[in-house]
Amino acid sequence: MAIAVMPRVEEELQPAVKQQEVLLHACDLNVYYGQQHAVQEVSLTVNKHEVLALIGPSGCGKSTFLRTMNRMNDGIEGARVTGQILYEGLNVLGENIHVTALRKEIGMVFQKPYPFPKSIYENLVHGLRHHQVKKSEWDETIEDALTKAALWDEVKDRLHESALALSGGQQQRLCIARALVLKPRVLLLDEPASALDPIATAKIEALMLELKKEHTVVVVTHNMQQAARVSDRTAFFYQGKLIEVGNTKQMFHQPGEKQTADYIAGRFG
Ligand SMILES: Nc1ncnc2c1ncn2[C@@H]1O[C@H](COP(=O)(O)OP(=O)(O)OP(=O)(O)O)[C@@H](O)[C@H]1O
């Protein structure tokens, strides 16, 4: 299923974008909830095969920015978006976008794992059915996704048991596998480990490093050590604005802006 109902339009900035292996490019993005200006004039790129971490204090617009990338804000009453998010030259905010097809390529995993109250297998088949993937491909696709989500060995003998019987960490990896069955190019993770214990968190972090080999990962996190451990680049948001984005090691050792330095040092947030 094609994402765009209309043909792709080559944008003027595409040649420069392609050279840098940029996959997503937010340009002058604004998101409003009624009068609340949640994301303000944000321009930010996401490169292919990187982990990009979005950090910043509560309410600074990280999740809103993340959700806008695959149109998760569409259903929120009073939400309004201006600007562009280019996905390989296509504005994902355009009216011509087939949102279901977009979400197949740009998948999302939320803070709290919410498996359907069905078997592990049924949880994974759901998306395949929805996207009319041939039944003959289901088993292989499911094994592949569970393997990538580092869950196959733990569940291969209980695929038809309830997903709700899994631990919190296993449920979150199942939710990641549920996104992976659709073979997305980008995974948007909204605080994927914040509800998990340290061991389950370490597994999710290891998974992010593995996933970027074949996918691109954008992760919202409150945990700065986590951002430092898993991400290639970090973007710091404050009060709806993007304050600074850059190489994670450099940003944590030598931030360019005072607000970033203060946040990283724990002086606010
Ligand atoms: N559905 C919504 N309706 C109205 N306002 C919202 C909605 N979602 C978020 N907001 C507001 O938009 C602003 C940004 O919220 P957002 O959730 O994007 O921030 P955040 O940085 O992800 O915060 P947190 O780290 O606490 O999740 C906040 O002021 C928030 O209250």
TrEMBL record:
**What is the protein's name according to its record?**
Phosphate ABC transporter ATP-binding protein, PhoT family
According to its UniProt entry, this protein's organism is Shouchella lonarensis
Gene Ontology annotations of biological process type:
phosphate ion transmembrane transport
Q: Name one Pfam family in it.
A: ABC_tran
Source domain of life: Bacteria
Q: Coiled-coil stretches, from where to where?
A: none
Q: Which GO terms describe its molecular function?
A: ATP binding; ATP hydrolysis activity; phosphate transmembrane transporter activity
Q: Which PANTHER family match?
A: ABC TRANSPORTER I FAMILY MEMBER 17 (PTHR43423:SF1)
Where is it found, in Gene Ontology cellular component terms? membrane
Boundaries of every ABC transporter domain copy: 24-264
Alphabetized UniProt keyword annotations: ATP-binding, Nucleotide-binding, Transport
What the entry lists under InterPro entries is as follows: AAA+_ATPase, ABC_transporter-like_ATP-bd, ABC_transporter-like_CS, P-loop_NTPase, PstB-like
